[in-house]
Design a protein that fits this description.
By secondary structure, this protein is mainly alpha-helical. Helices cover about 70% and strands about 0% of the residues. A two-stranded antiparallel sheet has the order 1-2.
Amino acid sequence: MTWHHATDKLNPMSTAIPEAAKPPADWEAISQPLQPFLGEVNSALRAEVNAFDPAIGNFVQYALSNSGKQLRPMLVGLGAGGAEATQPEHVTGAVIIEMVHLATLVHDDVMDEARVRRRRPTLSANWGNEIAVLAGDCLFAQALQRAAEFGTPSVCRAVSEATKNVCTGEILQTLQRGNYEISRDEYMKVVAMKTAELFALACGLGAELSGAKPARRDAVRAFGMALGTAYQVYDDCVDVFGSEPLAGKSLGTDLITGKPTLPVLAALGELSAGEAQRLRDLVNGWAPARGDELRELLAQAGTLAECQRVIEKLLAEAREAISGFPAAEDLCTLCNCLEAKATELE
């Protein structure tokens, strides 16, 4: 596990993470059947730059070119029933959701003072917090404008509702900073709002734009909520147990900013009163140099195994939600992949 201070100096235009460390091939393998669709989404996303004033095009292009694994566009395609079932409306829907997601990342990096995202400097590291916040706002606005252009208002309502929930989740998490006494249910509520909401939107919108019946739309949306929640729990584990070269982003930011996440909450529930207070003191006065001490306490509490159990339970709920529906096997490959990645943490 490698941590750095989120405020460490960084050459804005340098590559901060070794190029040799690439995203795992398993995500790429899952996306292969969807490549024609994902290619169209990428092209449409790049073209969105033209909708902005040329004076800010550089900032927007930088944000939009950082799509990573494209999990949410993948979920739109899989929710539709696969690449062969997608239409231009699905491409637009995926672009909308990706713009909302990328806007949240831009804002997250400002709040977390993160310097690296997906193996390159964050937008705020390059151009400062003021430009980053306003660029994120522009992406939100553009996403909602595109949603409003659909023939049915249901799309814009769904995107607006999801965006509101994501932002509400971020606010709740911000209000909880430094409060390691919150319940696990309160933590899960925030996770569902700030991360799982867009997974659910992607799945549900993919199905809706294909004319799926309400039962299937509800099923894939429930799948997305469970998968998205599991993904965020995994991501919170990566922040504590992962390594920056493999993750491709700044780690330890949850500890630096005082976000209560499951690894710490689970440990506090298992440690003796004295050791639990030691852990509280450690995270409240967090310094990356104390990583070994944190690892010792988390190992003593069996935290990683508990987090992996929670992830497995959520993924089982995701599989159950779509059991018996068409294309369930394709969606479940995402569960299998995430489950395997969670077991790789140590």
